[in-house]
Specification:
By secondary structure, this protein is α+β, with helices and mostly antiparallel strands. It is built from 9 helices and 7 strands, in the order αααααααβββαββββα. It has a 3-stranded antiparallel beta sheet, with helices on one face. β1 and β2 form a beta hairpin. α3 crosses α7, α4 crosses α5 and α4 packs across α6. The longest helix has 13 residues. The radius of gyration is 21 Å and the shape is globular.
C-alpha cells in the first residue's frame, strides 16, 4: 500500500497542478505555460493522465536530467521514487510529447529569453555596454533519412556516424548567464550569429562586438557590429 503522502503527490502530478520542484513556478509559471499552450492550440480537449501542461514541464526536465530515461525523469519531476508508485510508460510519455509538439516550447522560450541583469549590476556591464558572449555546441538528432539529409552528417574513422548533428549557437549575458537568444541549424556559426543579431532590437549606437570565428565562438571579440545597451 502506498503511503498517503506518495498518493497525494501522484494525484497532483496527474492533474498537473502541483509538482515536487519549486523552480518551475518561478521560471515557468503555470499561467504562462497555459497561455503558450492556448496560443499554439495545444491545450488538451479531454482530461488526460498526461495533460499538456505536465508534458511541457516534463520536456524541460529532460534537459536537466540529460541521459536518463523518460520514466526516471518523470519520477524526478513527480517525486515518485517508490517502486510501486504509478509512472507513465515510456511509449505513453513519447506519445504525449509528440501530441504537444515543439511549438509551445518555442513560444515559451521566446517569452522567457532576454537579458536579466538590472542596470548597473556588477559584472554585467562595461560602461554603457551589456557584456555578452557566444556559446556554440553540437547536438545529436534521431537517425532518420530526413535528418541525415537536413542536418550535419556525423563522421568517424569508419565513415558515417550513427547520429546527424544540429548546431546550437547561444547569445549569453555574462553577468547572469541568461540566454538572450539562440539559433539552431545545419549552417556555420557565422550564419547563426547573424540570424541571432538580426532579431535583436535596433542598436542605440554603432559600437559593439561580435565574437565569431571559425576556430571558436567563446568570448572572442572581433569586430564592431552591434550594441546591447541598458
Amino acid at each position: 500500500m502506498m503511503p498517503r503522502r506518495a498518493v497525494a503527490r501522484t494525484r497532483a502530478c496527474r492533474c498537473g497542478s502541483a509538482w515536487g520542484w519549486g523552480c518551475w513556478p518561478s521560471t515557468s509559471p503555470t499561467s504562462l505555460v497555459d497561455q503558450v499552450l492556448a496560443d499554439t492550440g495545444r491545450v488538451q480537449r479531454r482530461l488526460r493522465r498526461l495533460p499538456a501542461r505536465a508534458v511541457v514541464w516534463f520536456v524541460l526536465a529532460l534537459t536537466l536530467f540529460y541521459g536518463q530515461g523518460y520514466r526516471s525523469v518523470w519520477r524526478e519531476l513527480a517525486h515518485s521514487g517508490a517502486d510501486d508508485a504509478p509512472t507513465p510508460s515510456t511509449p505513453g510519455l513519447s506519445q504525449a510529447r509528440r501530441r504537444v509538439g515543439s511549438a509551445p516550447l518555442a513560444q515559451l522560450f521566446t517569452r522567457l529569453r532576454g537579458p536579466q541583469a538590472a542596470s548597473g549590476a556588477a559584472g554585467a556591464f562595461l560602461g554603457a555596454l551589456r557584456l555578452v558572449s557566444w556559446d556554440a555546441t553540437m547536438l545529436d538528432v534521431p537517425d532518420s533519412p530526413a535528418n541525415q539529409a537536413g542536418f550535419i552528417a556525423s563522421r568517424n574513422t569508419r565513415g558515417r556516424g550513427a547520429y546527424p548533428k544540429v548546431r546550437l549557437l547561444q547569445l549569453i549575458e555574462c553577468g547572469t548567464h541568461a540566454v538572450i537568444d539562440a539559433a539552431f541549424g545545419a549552417v556555420s556559426e557565422q550564419v547563426l550569429a547573424r540570424r541571432v543579431l538580426d532579431r535583436q532590437p535596433p542598436p542605440a549606437c554603432t559600437a559593439a562586438a561580435c565574437p565569431v570565428t571559425r576556430k571558436s565562438a567563446r568570448c572572442q571579440f572581433i569586430r564592431p557590429v552591434h550594441r546591447f545597451c541598458h
